[in-house]
Specification:
It is a single chain. The chain contains ten helices and ten strands. It has about 290 residues and is an alpha/beta fold. It has one domain: TIM Barrel (Alpha-Beta Barrel). Strand 4, helix 5 and strand 5 form a beta-alpha-beta unit. The longest helix is centred in the middle third of the chain and has 26 residues. The radius of gyration is 18 Å and the shape is globular.
Length: about 290
């Protein structure tokens, strides 16, 4: 089990190589390359005309300092509802799969489509996502990288609180993976997103099992806001989470998506903060092994 964290850190001005070195120096086994729209990584690895050479250079650098790329997060959202725009998004998703594979990632998280109101279009979105992931499967095979779909949430605009979306319940998450029925599609469980839906996280983990659940996004919330901060700083019971992962014999890695833990920190404290996250990862790994 590798312990990794994403390269995206809120308000961080470091370059990609500097961030990878920071992650290495913090004690992490691997890094999760952030390729979503707002990141500097996108400018280097997706928007640049020489993106393949850039990716190979980052791979060479990471290999030299001794850290692997275990996982990636693709651009988001995966759709906006306009055919022309969605086709451009799809091309960018395929490109991100190519880049992640060059870097050595084994899994790339690609959000399901959720541009429609889930409450009124749940069945339509389900069918749309079966088609969407089936279309991506040939590229997963081509680049040798598994796709992980993720449990999502939407905002209730009236109450200004999170509400259900695609895969926010275990039964639908499982149904999507099982319907596509490919070894190239697995599940990434965002622990924070489960908490926003008020679901029982250990029960969710047990419902998915270790054949579907092969990746994680680890971060903490207050059950209301998608805080993306360090575990044990808010309300999620991470001892119970680790126990459930151990009980299903979870076979994936621990990957933090706690970018906002760095949000208000001066650059001089990035290393300390990153080491703290790594220590939490080691603790969680030990708890998983215990059970």
């Amino acid at each position: 089990m590798l312990i990794s964290t994403q390269t995206d850190m809120a308000n961080c001005s470091l370059g990609l190589k500097e961030k990878i070195k920071l992650i290495k120096d913090s004690g992490f086994d691997a890094y999760d390359i952030s390729l979503f729209k707002s990141s500097k990584e996108d400018e280097l690895l997706l928007s640049a005309p020489d993106y393949i050479e850039n990716a190979k250079e980052i791979r060479r650098y990471a290999d030299e300092i001794g850290i692997a790329c275990s996982q990636s997060h693709a651009p988001m959202p995966s759709s906006v509802g306009d055919d022309e725009s969605d086709e451009e998004i799809f091309k960018k998703l395929v490109q991100s799969m190519e880049v992640a594979s060059i870097l050595g990632a084994k899994i790339i998280v690609i959000h399901p489509k959720q541009h429609l109101c889930y409450a009124e279009n749940a069945e339509k979105l389900f069918e749309m996502n079966v088609e969407f992931y089936n279309r991506l499967i040939p590229y997963a095979k081509k680049f040798g990288i598994k796709i992980a779909t993720e449990n999502m949430w939407q905002k209730n605009n009236g109450a200004k609180v999170p509400c259900d979306s695609v895969c926010s319940r275990a039964w639908e998450f499982n149904k999507l993976i099982d319907t596509v029925n490919s070894e190239w599609l697995v599940g990434c469980l965002d622990i924070g997103h489960v908490s926003l839906m008020g679901a029982d996280i250990p029960k969710f983990i047990h419902a998915m099992g270790n054949e579907r659940l092969l990746a994680l996004h680890i971060h903490d919330t207050d059950f209301v806001h998608d805080l993306h901060t360090a575990p044990f700083t808010n309300k999620i019971d991470y001892k119970a989470v680790a126990k459930a992962l151990g009980e299903i014999d979870y076979k994936g890695n621990i990957t933090f998506e706690a970018l906002n833990f760095f949000k208000n920190l001066p650059e001089e404290l990035y290393l300390s903060a990153s080491r703290y996250l790594c220590d939490i990862g080691k603790y969680l790994a030990a708890e998983i092994e215990k059970h």
